[in-house]
Amino acid sequence: MKQKTSLFLMLMGWFVFSSCSSLQKMEQEDYTRYVNPFIGAADNGHTFPGACYPFGMVQTSPVTGAVGWRYCSEYTYQDSIIWGFTQTHLNGTGCMDLGDILVMPVTGQRVRAWDAYRSSFDKKSEKASPGYYTVELNEPQVKAELTASIHAALHRYTYHKADSASVLIDLQHGPSWNEKQYHSQVRHCEVNWEDAQTLTGHVSNSVWVDQDYFFVLKFDHPVASRLELPMGETEKGKRLVATFKLKPGEQLMMKVALSTTSVEGAKKNLLAEIPSWDFDGLKEGARAQWNAYLKRIEVSGTDEEKVNFYTAFYHALIQPNEISDVDGYYRNAADSVVKAGGGKFYSTFSLWDTYRAAHPFYTLLVPERVDGFVSSLVEQGEVQGFLPIWTLWGKENYCMVGNHGVSVVAEAYRKGFRGFDAERAFAVIKQTQTVSHKLKSNWEDYMKYGYFPTDLTPAESVSSTLESVYDDYAAADMARRMGKKEEAAYFDRRADFYKNLFDPTTKFMRPRRSDGAWKSPFNPSDVAHAESSGGDYTEGNAWQYTWHVQHDIPGLIKLFGGEGPFLNKLDSVFTLKLETSQADVTGLIGQYAHGNEPSHHVAYLYTVAGRPERTQELVRQIFKTQYRNKPDGLCGNDDCGQMSAWYMFSAMGFYPVDPVSGNYVFGAPQLPKMVLHLADGKVFTVIAEGLSEERLHVESVTLNGQPYLKNFIAHEDVVKGGTLVFKMK
Question: What mean pLDDT is predicted for residues 345-354?
C-alpha cells in the first residue's frame, strides 16, 4: 500500500508539473517573434513598419516619401532614403493623412535648406517588431530606435559621431497628394520652448480631414542652441533644428506625446505613460501588450504560416485608435472638447472595408473593446447627424459609400453586446438612414425610385444602392430585436431594393435611369472609380458588385433563376480575365479582385449555393497567391486590417458573409489546428484532420464530437467554446 501511495503521488506530481509546464509555456511563448511588420510595406499594401501600441493613438515610423498615392503610409520598402520619423500613420489605406511631427537626428553643419537633412540607411540594420523599430542612418552616423505607448513615442538616438549633434523638428510635414498640397496643408502652427528640454505646440492642418493636434516634445539633454529654418510663401508650419552637446557614442532620448484637446492633455498623457527615460522598459511593455493579444489564438503550422497569420493579427489590432486623453477627454466632430461617455473614444474607422470581417473578428477575439467602438460611433453620429462613413481623428472624411457604422452597431447588438445605449444607437441609425446628408445619401431619390438613379446620382449609383440596402437590412434586424415593429417593416422593405437594379437580361446589377430605363451602353467589365474615372461602381465593376447582396443570397439566386444559372455566372467571375490599371482593383483571379473588399465574400457564395468544394478550392488558391511573407506580400491595401481579417477567418475555416446575421459560412481551414482563447475562459478549437497540400476539401464536420451538417456555424456556438473538427479529403 505504501509503494502504491508513493507511486500515485509521484504520478500526480508529474501530472501537475506537466500541466504547469504547459500553461507556463503558453504564458511565456513570444508570439511577437512571428510578426513581420514589413509585410505589405511594398507595392500597394500601404502598411508601415514602425512602432505602435495595440489600438494606440501614436504610430512612430520612418518616412521614405510623402507625396503621391504610393506614400499613404509614408514608407515603401524599396526606397533607400529616410526623411525622418513621424508620430502618426494610417495602416494600409488608399488615402493619406496624419504623418505628424517629423523628427530626424542629424550631425555636421546645420543648413537652412529643410530637405538637406535626409539620409541613406543601412538596409541590413533596419529591423522591426511589435512596439519597436531601429535603423542605422548613414550620413549622420546615428542609430535610431523607436518605441511607443498609447499616446506617446520614445526615441533613442545613438550618435556614433557627435559633430553638432542635432534633431530636425518639422511641423510643416505631412503626406500629400502633390507638391503644392505638401507645402500648404498646415493652416496654423504655434510652438513654445517651455525650458531647455521641452517644446510644446499646436498644429492645425487639412489633408483628408481638418486635424488639430497638440504636443509636448521633451529631451533628456538640454538644448544647447536652436535654429529656425525659413519657410516658403504658402507654408504656415515651423521647421526647427535643436542642437546638443554630446560626445561620440552618447545617446539622446526624446519623448513625444499627442492630444486632440490641449497641450495640458498631451502633458497628462506623457506623465501617465512615459514618466521615466526607460527605453528598454517601455519597449518591453509594448511587446508584452502585443503578446497579450496575439496569444489569444494559438496556431499550428509552419513558421511561414505562423508569420503570415500573426502579422495579420497584428495589423488588425493597430486600429481603431484611442484618441481620447488618459482622462477620457477628446475633441469631437464639432470641435468641442468633451468627455467620452464610455471613458475612451476611438477613431480611424474605415467602415466600408472593416464592417465585412475586421469588426466581426473584434467581436470574437477582442470583445472587451466592442462596446467602446460602438459608443464612439454613436457619439460621433449624434454630433454630426449620421453615423460615421470613414472617421479619422474624430472627424468625418466622407470616403466611400454606404453608412456601414449601421452594420457595426447592429452586428454588436445581434451578438449580445449591451455595454452601449441601444435606444440612442438605434435613434442614430434611423436618422442616418432617413435624413439625407452630404454626399451619396439622397434618401428622397432612394425612396422615390427604389434605387439611386444613375442620371440623378453624381457617381457610384449601383454601389451606393447595394451598400445602402445592406445597411437597411442591418437597421431592420436591430429594430426587430428591439421590438420596433414599424421601423423593422420599413427597413425590411428597403432591404429588397437590390432587386430593382438586377437586369434579368444580362443578369448583372446594372445602372438604371430615373425613367426606369437601363443605362446604355453597358460593359460589365468597365471598372469605375469616383475619384478618377467616375462611373456607377465603387472601385469595381458589375462582375464584382452583382454579388453584393450579403443579406439575401437565396433571393439573389432566385433572381438568377435558380442555383444552376447562379453558379454558372459565378464560375465566370473566376475565369473571365479582367484588364485594368485601376490601383485599388488588384489581386485578380479572373474578374475577382481580392485586393479590394467588395470581392471578399464572393468565394463563399459557392457554399451557400450548394458547391462548397469550389469555395474550398478558391480559399486555398487565394491563400497561396495573395498572402506572402514578403514586403510585397499583400495583393492590395490592408485597409485598416480588413485584408488581414479575411485571412484569419479563412484560416479558421469560416467567414462572416453576412456579419449582422451572426453566422459564419464554412470554407475549409488552412492550418492544422487553431485554439481560440475567448472571453470568460472559453476555448474554441478548430482542427483540420488530415490537412495537406493535396487534401484541401472537407469530407465531414463534427462539433463537440457530433456530426454537424449545417454549412455555417453561429457566433454563439463559437463563443461558448467547443471543438470543431473538419475531416479533410
Answer: 98
